[in-house]
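Retro notes (design track)

What went well: tokenization of the new backbones is finally stable.
What didn't: we kept losing track of which sequence belonged to which structure.
Fix going forward: every design gets posted as structure first, then sequence, in one message. First example under the new rule, 168 residues:
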């Protein structure tokens, strides 16, 4: 009658346990790697959706006839508008989209933007939209419904192409 394990039995069980632990560690490491990858992809998608949402709300909630498009060149537009959409909890803020040195900015102010380049005394909050190759806004010829086509060709993110109707 035996009361204990032999040395061989202990060595076999430790070897089997070690092999199981190696496989568990490898699967844990690959899980961490895939989680990191999907976290980055999710952040990209979330950022893209937020940009689309802000653009859509700015233009769709714009005051009638308040959108002014200043064409700088073939790939650059500057847009001034007044909208009821605000990222900084302002009531009917004035918004500007400025494309300068291949960077797109969204400015929000309580005072109207009248000309570009902006006055030195202008007060506004700035949101960086990202690096882009071009920023263009086209107004529809439809007299009944004011609508715009907004196209942003980002350098690294997906392009944004939105057709937005102004809501009354």
């Amino acid at each position: 009658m035996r009361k204990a394990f032999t040395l061989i039995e202990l060595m076999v069980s430790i070897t089997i346990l070690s092999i199981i632990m190696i496989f568990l560690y490898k699967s844990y490491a690959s899980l961490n790697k895939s989680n990191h990858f999907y976290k980055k992809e999710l952040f990209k998608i979330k950022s893209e959706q937020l940009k689309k949402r802000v653009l859509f709300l700015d233009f769709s909630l714009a005051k009638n006839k308040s959108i002014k498009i200043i064409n700088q060149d073939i790939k650059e537009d500057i847009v001034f508008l007044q909208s009821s959409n605000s990222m900084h909890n302002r009531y009917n803020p004035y918004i500007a989209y400025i494309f300068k040195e291949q960077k797109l900015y969204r400015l929000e102010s309580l005072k109207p933007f009248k000309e570009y380049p902006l006055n030195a005394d202008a007060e506004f909050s700035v949101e960086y939209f990202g690096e882009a190759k071009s920023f263009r806004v086209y107004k529809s010829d439809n007299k009944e419904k004011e609508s715009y086509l907004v196209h942003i060709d980002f350098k690294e993110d997906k392009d944004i192409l939105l057709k937005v109707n102004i809501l009354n």
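Added context from the reviewer: Residues 3 and 70 are 92 Å apart (CA to CA).
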